[in-house]
Design a protein that fits this description.
This protein has 314 residues and is an alpha/beta fold. The chain has ten helices and 17 strands. Strands 1, 2, 3, 8, 9, 10, 11, 14 and 17 form a nine-stranded mixed beta sheet that branches. 40% of the residues are buried. The chain binds uridine 5'-triphosphate.
Length: 314
């Protein structure tokens, strides 16, 4: 069912790539990071080639919308242009840009990045759907007849931007949203937990989840075992409904290099806060090794080394 929908041109891919990638410490947009071991293909090249491969399989020109931020929009666009869109047509790869929010000091004051600019940063991947609706891409996709959107993070090289199983599941279940989830590795893994609260499916960040519940078991297994890896299939109707909502802000206390190193409050929206607005959600559990290997850190877990090894193995 999913493959037929892709073949009919009903499916588009939304790739979010607006983050600052602070932990990785790569001085360019994270999507430009050379992730494959031998050919040194970037994350952007990988995701584009997956779109092209799927397009070849179904004999249809597919479309992808990439979210950038004010910090990396220019460089991301240039990277695609300089690399001739990695073989795609320019019209297949389009960009929309998310807004910034100011950083605040511990006293709640604005800060300066330079003598004439206020310090600010992208407002989190939770603004994807509202930024998408506000951009011209939403109506373009409607005109193309796109009915379903797959949501993918650029920093998970194992993700499939045209995941036919997820699309099929959404259509079959007449859902607003299907979540592709994996099992938590351990009680202290730093992932959001998928839970049901008062009949609603939602994600609670690990930082906000009570420790006692993280540890709770049912037999041999963790009671709350579904980890959110932010892979979703969404209906365009749901996107239209949710795109006008303002998702809540989460604050985090972070290091920043402004006029010298300092600590700041950063405010971000998270995409999973859209879930309680969905009328009908399905969650599908997958084996981790075929769909999740995030590139977050320069070394250790979630680093180029682990992502490369997982890519080779997958
Ligand atoms: P993360 O929350 O892991 O952030 O983003 P990050 O920017 O990649 O890395 P750190 O935290 O600064 O080290 C998860 C995904 O959401 C996107 C990122 O590009 C990545 O694909 N994202 C994040 C945005 O598109 N916009 C944002 O404002 C934040």
């Amino acid at each position: 069912i999913g493959r037929n929908a892709i073949k009919e041109g009903y499916v588009g891919a939304i790739i979010v790539a607006g983050g600052q990638g602070t932990r990785l410490g790569f001085p360019h947009p994270k999507g430009c990071f050379p992730i494959t071991k031998v050919k040194k293909k970037s994350l952007f090249q990988l995701v584009t080639e997956k779109m092209l491969a799927c397009g070849n399989r179904v004999q249809k020109q597919l479309h992808m919308a990439i979210m950038t931020s004010q910090d990396n929009d220019f460089e991301t666009n240039k990277f695609f242009k300089d690399n001739a869109y990695f073989g795609a047509k320019e019209e297949q790869v389009q960009f929309f840009c998310q807004p910034n929010l100011p950083f605040l000091s511990s006293e709640g004051n604005l800060l300066l990045k330079s003598k004439s600019t206020i310090a600010e940063g992208p407002d989190g991947n939770g603004s994807t759907l509202s930024a998408f609706i506000k951009s011209s891409l939403f109506s373009k996709w409607n005109m193309l007849g796109i009915r379903y959107a797959l949501f993918t993070l650029i920093d998970n090289p194992l993700a499939d931007p045209f995941d036919e199983e997820l699309v099929g599941r959404l259509i079959q279940g007449k859902c607003d949203c299907v979540i592709k989830a994996i099992e938590r590795k351990s009680h202290d893994e730093k992932v959001g937990l998928i839970v049901q609260e008062e009949g609603k499916t939602k994600v609670i960040e690990y930082t906000e989840f009570p420790d006692a519940l993280k540890l709770q078991r049912e037999g041999d297994e963790l009671l709350f075992k579904a980890a959110n890896i932010s892979l979703f299939c969404l209906s365009m109707g749901f996107i239209e409904r949710i795109g006008s909502q303002s998702l809540p802000l989460h604050k985090s206390w972070k290091q920043a290099d402004l006029l010298g190193p300092t600590e700041i409050w950063k405010f971000e929206r998270f995409i999973f806060d859209m879930l309680p607005f969905a009328k009908n959600i399905d969650t599908v559990m997958y084996p981790r090794d075929i769909c999740f290997s995030p590139l977050k850190n320069a070394f250790g877990e979630g680093s180029p080394e682990t992502a490369q090894n997982d890519l080779i193995r997958s």
